[in-house]
Design a protein that fits this description.
By secondary structure, the protein is an all-alpha fold. 73% of the residues lie in helices and 0% in strands. It contains 17 helices and no strands. The chain has helices spanning 2-6, 12-39, 44-47, 49-76, 80-110, 116-135, 145-166, 177-205, 209-225, 258-261, 267-270, 296-326, 334-359, 364-384, 388-416, 419-446, 451-479. Helix 12 packs antiparallel against helix 17. It is globular and about 75 Å long.
């Protein structure tokens, strides 16, 4: 009888338990399979881009957890005057040193071409440890919180620089760089949108809980970084980039490589524009080390325009945070006012990324000039006719134009920069853009809380960027490019 039972299969209780377990697991496993299918579509799984997309989603989720904890401690938990002092202290202790460290990040990471996976994992692990360090200080708001926040900021930017350098090595066949960056960016935005309310919920349990969550997320990211393909660490054919100033007409100065010209000290091979002169008894310039001879006027003007967008982003984050807390939008509370602008900026950023993926690399110079003009127009309207609608519109347009302008810059780097130095060019351009964000944030925290003045300064930032870049961008678009466009 016992033997007969053994062949009857599991009992009803066991079958019910298995069915219940399967029902409970199904939403999670189904969601995981759907996410994996989306991130690995169109060859991204085979090339390794899918894993980078997932890693960037983890990065975005962890960063927003730390942001929630810091914002609650430094900004929301104290009166406005005290909050402004705390944020000013935060900028002084974290942003000022970062301004000095940022120019070093790109060149330092250039020296680690064989350790990119380790660098990304290290940036994740450092933030995990720093999150635990900050968890003991968020309740008191002690000074030890700020050096740890600086470490988080530097680690986050270092990850961003390495990620930009890695993308070109993981492109699937027939995939443009702008499309790849769009997918990576969208994954980060979606993860941020999901993790932000979770972090807010953890904050209600205790001020340290979002940091515990960030630590767990970054530990997972540390292991995920090592699952990237080994070709990420390959530096075959790469050289370090050198950004050269173009001539007045926007055409790049293109010194002939020594190996092509047969000369090692000629004016064309060795001089930057505005440097020493050849002839006249002067010593010829030394041959430059192998590297990027010129990125061309398009990329440099695109970088100037993107710096204006980044400076605007930093400015609006800090200025509107205090302005709307002290002077909420008409008929709204401070929290709702901040939420309106934040959601508008997030939606605009996501839309810009989606449009950038659709446009791919079509006319990036014209796209950058157009979106810069659009942002400037809305900023001027917000300064002249300040209202709830226009402030929300400026947040949305700023997010939209920043995303689309950055994707267009990526497309120009892909098109104009030789492959052997492209990863280095990404690293250095990203460092410059982060510095622009720091400058804009500093202006935002120092400015008096006057709405018209603030919107005027925002328009001024964009006007400076337009004056420096639009003419060159449109001129380059009219002349065309000798480089083949990548679809």
């Amino acid at each position: 009888m016992t033997a007969a039972r053994s062949h009857d299969g599991p009992g009803p209780l066991r079958r019910a338990g298995r069915a219940t377990g399967h029902a409970l697991r199904a939403p999670f496993t189904g969601t995981a399979r759907s996410i994996r299918k989306a991130t690995h579509a169109h060859g991204a799984g085979e090339s390794g881009l899918g894993k980078l997309i997932e890693l960037h989603a983890v990065n975005g989720a962890g960063d927003v957890m730390i942001t929630v904890a810091l914002a609650s401690t430094v900004f929301f938990s104290v009166p406005t005057d005290e909050a402004r002092g705390r944020v000013a202290l935060y900028l002084a202790i974290t942003m000022a040193p970062f301004t000095l460290l940022a120019p070093v990040i790109g060149p330092l990471l250039d020296r680690l071409p064989h350790g990119r996976r380790a660098a990304m994992a290290g940036a994740m692990l450092a933030r995990a440890l720093l999150a635990i360090t900050m968890s003991g200080a968020v309740a008191t708001g002690g000074l030890e919180l700020y050096p740890a926040a600086l470490g988080v900021l530097v680690s986050s930017k270092a990850y961003g620089v390495v990620r930009s350098a890695v993308v070109p090595r993981l492109l699937p066949p027939n995939f443009s760089l702008v499309k790849a960056n769009s997918r990576v960016t969208l994954a980060g935005l979606l993860a941020t949108g999901i993790a932000a309310p979770i972090g807010a919920g953890l904050q209600m349990i205790g001020s340290a809980w979002p940091l515990y969550g960030a630590c767990a997320i970054f530990v997972a990211g540390t292991f995920l970084a090592f699952t990237l393909p080994h070709k990420v660490d390959s530096a075959k054919g790469e050289r370090r980039a050198r950004l050269i100033v173009p001539h007045e007409d926007g055409a790049p100065s293109r010194p002939a490589p020594a190996e092509a010209s047969g000369r090692t000290g000629s004016t064309r091979a060795g001089l930057r524009r505005g440097g020493g002169k050849a002839g006249g008894g002067e010593k010829p310039a030394k041959e430059r080390p192998p590297g990027l001879r010129s990125v061309g006027g398009s990329v440099l003007h695109g970088l100037q325009a993107n710096a204006a967008h980044r400076a605007l982003s930093g400015f609006l984050i800090f200025f509107l945070a205090f302005l709307l807390r002290e002077h909420p939008l008409a008929g709204q509370s401070a929290a709702v006012s901040l939420g309106i602008v934040g959601v508008a900026a997030g939606v605009g950023n996501a839309c810009g990324t989606a449009v950038g993926s659709w446009l791919r690399a079509r006319g990036p110079e014209v796209i950058i000039a157009t979106v810069l003009g659009l942002a400037l127009s809305v900023a001027i309207l917000a300064a002249v006719f300040f209202s709830t609608l226009l402030v929300a519109a400026l947040g949305a347009v700023a997010g939209f134009t920043q995303a689309l302008s950055k994707l267009s810059l990526d497309a120009m780097i892909q098109r104009d920069v030789p492959e052997e130095v492209r990863t280095s060019a990404f690293a250095r351009s990203e460092t410059l853009l982060q510095m622009a964000w720091v400058v804009g944030g500093g202006i935002g925290i120092a400015l008096p809380l006057n709405a018209v003045l603030g919107m005027s300064v925002a328009a001024g930032i964009l006007a400076l960027g337009a004056a420096a870049s639009v003419r060159g961008l449109l001129g380059a678009a009219r002349r065309g490019t000798p480089h083949p466009r990548v679809a």
